[in-house]
Amino acid sequence: MEENATTKLKVIDLRKGIKILWKSRITLAKTLTIAFVLSCIYIFSLPRFYITDTKLAPEIESSLGKGTLSSIASSFGFDIGEMQTTDAITPLLYPDLMDDNGFVTSLFSIQVVSKDRKIDTNYYDYLENGQKEAWWCSIFNIFKQNTLKDNSKILDPYNLTKEQEEIAKEIRNNVSIKANSKNGVITITTEAQDPYICKTLADSVRSKLRTYITNYRTNKARSDWEYYKTLTQEAKKIYEQSRQKYASFADANTNMALKSVESKLEDMENDMQIKFNTYNTLNTQLQAAKAKVQERTPAFTILKGASSPTKPAGPKRMLFVFIMLLVTFFGTSLWVLRHSISDIFA
Hints:
By secondary structure, the protein is of the alpha+beta class. 57% of the residues lie in helices and 9% in strands. The protein contains twelve helices and six strands. It has helices at 2-5, 14-23, 25-43, 67-75, 101-105, 123-130, 135-143, 162-174, 195-252, 259-296, 317-336, 341-344, and strands at residues 50-58, 111-113, 120-122, 175-179, 186-192, 300-304. A hairpin with a 6-residue loop joins strand 2 and strand 3 (120-122).
């Protein structure tokens, strides 16, 4: 009973542990040196990369009659008023565009130029041939069968070759689109091995996104505009033909006082007037459709422009080497002390 009641506290004897480690200092030095060399070889072989971002706020077309619903939601702590829109694709869905091959492959043709001007090509070719890689990847690629794509082949976004699919996957890793659910601000983050290319990519993705949103928002209005443009051109052509016939007939019968001629002129004038009214009405509708396109074209506010990064974002070489040395030290220490743990814990 007395032994059960007495609790024996185990105390770590650091002196014994330090003495044992000191005796094995050569082993520790060797392992740390090997870890340092291997870590440096690995981390310094990885190419450095840069990251930049840009932010823009697209115009959101609010739906009508949202006031009451927004007020009720606000009383419960929800804010739905800001993100309500009549569009099927809201800003919250813009990040999903990176899942669409059509949008991703539109980035293939972006023209990129490196900081040292040694690279001046399209983004597809840059990802395929212009990027730096670790030395072991270069060795591996020597033995890898090179089945390079035929650039003359027409690109089908939804029927990509294996090489094109790999490039598209790499683009998805290099480009990130995020939307703030509260204010709709879109953040585009890009990554590249060259700071100038990184900035160019961010600006290009922002431009492509703006174009996509604009085309989507104005698609119906542009279709109506083209429709009325065709009708107006046809109506104008018919009116001009009628006007020319009337003028020719009137000139040919200037000195004629026949009732039949006067009746014919009157009929032709009335027909010309009807055709003019038709043309004038369609032209008015054409101008309204044109104004509708302008009305539907969204406005964008660039909250933050993409800047050329001055410092690489990674890899963190010093941090990596330090962590590897720390892991090696603790691993080696545990291995050295594995037979003396019972002595250390008194």
